[in-house]
Every structure is written in structure tokens, then in C-alpha cells.
């Protein structure tokens, strides 16, 4: 049974016992003794007390502790990979990516904290003497990080690492769907004697544990990776006191493919994106607009590329796609496909429950053509392995359709005309725009516009959210 990590110690949860399932087999992996509201308050108090010392700890010492944690996680990389793979259904290679994201974040933010600086503003004069304005940054305080289930360690790392590196203390709450790998970070932290209260990791029902964390007046910032609806709920609960928010919420990412795109590369990219972790990412392709002059050809190439994909789990060899997170998510995929077909779309392949994987939450990746924007598959965030294709004739019309959503997280463009690329960049309402398969990195911000979020994850811009400004105006 997995335990909670509060104030530097592993402790038994005082709440209910929760089972965690492997979505590829439907079998129980392990159990978690959940935290309750009382333990959420204990974690808050521990973090608040630890902040008094940690916020004054030299940045080089904070760096050393994060690097020590990274070394310990590296030593247990195989254990972490297995936990991620089994609880999320990720194939082995994709689980490796999640663990390596954790390791990268720990070192990136440990280094980045050394680069946070202040500023001396131009002098003014007071009674004929110089007046120096010195602006510094100080650690914000206690932070709370609510983590989505799809990247148990990567998501945790971009909340935990900047908080700890900046001098803040944190409480990390993993999703109840995938709490094991994140809770195991607590096991590792206890082994190395990480300073008590700086990191706390607790798992339990959102209506009790998350609510208690959000409503408390102790946190100075609440961070979340989750749905738009969850973001609204967090802000309502957090209104008990003034807090900062950094929220990475849902998306409805448009993809525009122009006639001069490399069709073979684009087809391979579309399939890789939609079957990688079974399409369960907030930045995934949701509405794919293809110019009418290449529409038929690209549809055929996508179908050919998709035929190379097979279902599998863990270390199965080949071009493998795993399950979606649970049967409810799988059944929703079936509903989206059925709605699209009934509304006139064509199901070219996939969209079935495979008999040989009936114990897991598998669905074969589906290719839909002749999709329209009034279908559920276009209006809702898919979050699964459905590839919805539709044609367009006018570039301006495609841009207008791309922006016709409350969300604005990621947008994609395939084509090589510099004028069209510039127009897409200026017109598309999204926090990040990727051209011809470009991807972000730890050094680039991951912001959302409109209802897709507040603030950003990753990069130095995320790091800055963990500080308050402090001014001294000095007349010598």
C-alpha cells in the first residue's frame, strides 16, 4: 500500500483505501491509503513552517538538494518507469519520456534559480540627493500543485521543481487515477532526508483533499494542470483569500495543412501525435483542416500510416498504442465517433473495441473524414485516438474556424510559404503555435490564451511566477 509524504515522513493515509488499476489489463496494481482533510491541513501547516527556513536557504544549497533528488530518482528510474507505465497504460518508451521529463525539470529549475536577479532603476533626486530604487524578487510562499493523470511525473516536476528551486515550499496532489509514481517521489525524498515540509505529496478525493487545500488561506499560489471546468472550480474554492493562479487547462487545437506541405511527413506526424499515449494530451490535434487540393491524397497517406499502428502494452515491440485511461474514456470515444458518423462523417478505419484486449480500456485508433465543425468531435476536446479530417478552400476561412473556440492552448500549421506562416502566427489565437512539426522544450513557455489557462508552465517565465517583487527606495 502506498503512503502519503507529509513533513518529511511517509505516513499512513487516514482516509479510505483506494485501488489503482492498470488500464491495459483492468487489474489492480496496488492500493493507496488516501489522505483526508485533516492530513491536508497537516501538509499545509508543515509547508508554512518549512517556508520560514527554506525561503532563507541559499540558492546553491537549494540547488544541491534538487540535484540530490535527481540523482536518487535516476537511481530508481526503472522503478518509476514501471509505475508510470502500469498506472497510466503508457507503453514503455512513452513512460521513459515521462520519467526523463522529471529528471530534466529538476536540473533545469535548479540551475534557473541561480539566474533570478533584481534591478536598480534610474535614479531620481530627493532634496538634491540621489534616490536609488532597488527591485528584488522574494520566494512567494506555500504553493499547491494539482497534477493531471496523463503525465504523473512530468506534470509533477514542473510544479515541484520551480517551487523548491525558488525558495517556496509545496504540496503536490496527484490525480487519483495515477497517484503511484508521484507518491513514490515521497519515498525517494524520505530516503535522502529531504528537508522536512519543503515537499509534501498527498493523494485523496478531490472533494475533500483538493477542496481543503484550495480553501485554505495558507497557499500563496495554486497551480493546476487539468480541465477548464476544474480550473473554474479551483478558483471558486480559492476565493477564501487572495492567491496567485497558474492554470494549464483544456484545449481544442486546430491544425491547418496547406498545399505546399510535405504530405508524407505531415501524415506521419498526425498519426504519431494521435496515437502517442492514445491521443491523451491537452495539446493534441483536435480539428484538422486540410486544403481541398491535397485532401484526398493526405487522407490516403494518413490511413496508410495509421495501418502500421498496433495495440499493445508495456514493452511490446513495434509501432504500439496503449489503452485510454479507463472504460469511461473509451466509451466516450465511441460516442464521439457515433455522433460524427450519424452527422455525415465517414469512419475509414478503427473505432472498435478489440476482443483480444477486452479486459483493458482499449479502442482501435479511428480515422474520420468529411468531419464538420458542428459535430461533437470538433466542439469538444477529444483527448483520445480519433483523427478527424475535413477540407477547406479558403485560408482566411480556415483561420476563422480555427479560432472559433473558447480555448487557445496550442495550434498547428503545415506549409512553407513565409507569408502564410506569418499570417497564421499573427491570426491564430493560441498560446503556442507550432509550424511543420515544431515542438516546445523545457526552455520555452507553455502558455494558454482565452479559457485555456493563466500563466504558463516550463521555461524561465514559469519560474518567475514563484516570486513576489519587493522594492526598496533608498536615499543614501
Explain what this protein looks like in three dimensions.
Helix content is 38%, strand content 25%. With 476 residues, it is an alpha/beta fold. It folds into two domains: 4-249 and 452-474, Aldehyde Dehydrogenase, Chain A, domain 1 (3-Layer(aba) Sandwich), CATH 3.40.605; 253-441, Aldehyde Dehydrogenase, Chain A, domain 2 (3-Layer(aba) Sandwich), CATH 3.40.309. Helix 1 runs parallel beside helix 7, helix 7 packs across helix 8 and helix 9 crosses helix 10. The longest helix has 21 residues, at 92-112. The mean pLDDT is 97.
Features:
476 residues, alpha/beta, Aldehyde Dehydrogenase, Chain A, domain 2, six-stranded mixed sheet, 38% helix
Q: Shape from CA axes?
A: globular
The total count of helices amounts to 15
**Rg for CA atoms:** 24 Å
Helix content: 25-40%
Sheet-strand content, in percent, reads 15-25%
From the 3D structure, determine the CATH topology of the largest domain: Aldehyde Dehydrogenase, Chain A, domain 1
The class by helix and strand makeup works out as: alpha/beta
CATH superfamily of the largest domain: Aldehyde Dehydrogenase, Chain A, domain 1
CATH class of the largest domain: Alpha Beta
Number of extended strands? 26
Strand order of the largest sheet: 16-17-18-13-12-20-21
How many domains make up the coordinates?
A: 2
Which CATH-level-2 architecture of the largest domain? 3-Layer(aba) Sandwich
Amino acid at each position: 500500500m502506498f503512503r502519503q509524504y507529509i513533513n518529511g515522513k511517509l505516513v499512513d493515509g487516514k482516509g479510505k483505501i483506494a485501488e489503482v488499476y492498470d488500464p491495459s489489463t483492468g487489474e489492480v496494481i496496488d492500493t493507496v491509503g488516501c489522505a483526508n482533510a485533516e492530513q491536508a491541513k497537516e501538509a499545509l501547516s508543515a509547508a508554512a513552517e518549512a517556508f520560514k527556513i527554506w525561503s532563507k536557504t541559499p540558492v546553491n544549497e537549494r540547488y544541491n538538494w534538487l540535484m540530490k533528488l535527481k540523482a536518487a530518482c535516476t537511481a530508481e528510474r526503472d522503478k518509476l518507469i514501471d509505475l508510470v507505465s502500469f498506472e497510466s497504460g503508457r507503453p514503455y518508451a512513452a513512460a521513459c519520456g515521462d520519467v526523463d521529463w522529471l529528471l530534466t525539470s529538476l536540473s533545469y529549475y535548479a540551475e534557473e534559480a541561480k539566474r533570478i536577479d533584481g534591478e536598480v532603476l534610474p535614479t531620481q533626486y530627493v532634496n538634491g540627493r540621489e534616490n536609488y530604487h532597488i527591485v528584488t524578487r522574494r520566494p512567494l510562499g506555500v504553493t499547491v500543485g494539482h497534477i493531471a493523470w496523463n503525465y504523473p511525473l512530468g506534470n509533477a516536476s514542473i510544479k515541484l521543481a520551480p517551487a523548491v528551486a525558488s525558495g517556496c515550499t509545496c504540496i503536490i496532489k496527484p490525480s487519483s487515477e495515477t497517484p503511484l509514481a508521484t507518491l513514490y517521489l515521497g519515498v525517494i525524498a524520505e530516503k535522502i532526508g529531504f528537508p522536512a515540509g519543503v515537499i509534501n505529496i498527498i493523494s485523496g478525493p478531490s472533494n475533500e483533499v483538493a477542496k481543503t487545500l484550495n480553501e485554505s488561506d495558507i497557499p500563496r499560489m495554486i497551480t493546476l494542470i487539468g480541465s477548464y471546468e476544474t480550473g473554474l472550480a479551483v478558483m471558486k474554492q480559492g476565493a477564501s483569500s487572495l492567491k496567485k493562479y497558474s492554470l494549464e487547462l483544456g484545449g481544442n487545437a486546430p491544425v491547418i495543412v496547406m498545399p505546399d506541405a510535405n504530405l508524407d511527413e505531415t501524415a506521419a506526424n498526425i498519426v504519431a501525435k494521435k496515437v502517442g499515449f492514445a491521443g491523451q494530451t491537452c495539446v493534441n490535434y483536435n480539428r484538422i483542416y486540410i486544403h481541398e487540393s491535397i485532401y484526398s491524397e493526405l487522407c490516403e497517406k494518413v490511413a496508410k500510416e495509421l495501418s502500421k499502428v498496433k495495440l499493445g502494452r508495456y514493452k511490446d515491440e513495434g509501432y504500439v498504442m496503449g489503452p485510454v485511461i479507463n472504460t469511461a474514456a473509451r466509451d466516450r470515444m465511441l460516442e464521439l465517433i457515433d455522433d460524427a458518423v450519424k452527422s455525415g462523417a465517414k469512419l475509414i478505419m478503427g473505432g472498435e473495441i478489440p476482443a483480444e484486449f477486452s479486459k483493458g480500456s482499449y479502442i482501435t485508433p479511428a480515422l474520420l473524414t468529411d468531419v464538420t465543425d458542428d459535430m461533437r468531435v470538433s466542439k469538444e476536446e477529444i483527448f483520445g485516438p480519433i483523427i478527424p479530417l475535413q477540407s477547406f478552400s479558403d485560408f482566411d476561412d480556415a483561420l476563422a474556424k480555427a479560432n472559433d473556440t473558447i480555448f487557445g492552448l496550442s495550434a498547428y500549421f503545415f506549409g512553407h510559404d513565409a507569408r502564410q506562416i506569418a499570417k497564421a502566427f499573427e491570426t491564430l489565437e493560441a498560446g503556442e503555435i507550432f509550424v511543420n512539426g515544431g515542438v516546445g522544450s523545457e526552455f520555452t513557455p507553455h502558455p494558454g490564451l482565452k479559457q485555456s489557462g493563466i500563466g504558463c508552465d516550463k521555461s524561465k517565465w514559469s519560474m518567475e511566477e514563484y516570486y513576489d517583487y519587493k522594492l526598496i527606495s533608498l536615499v543614501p
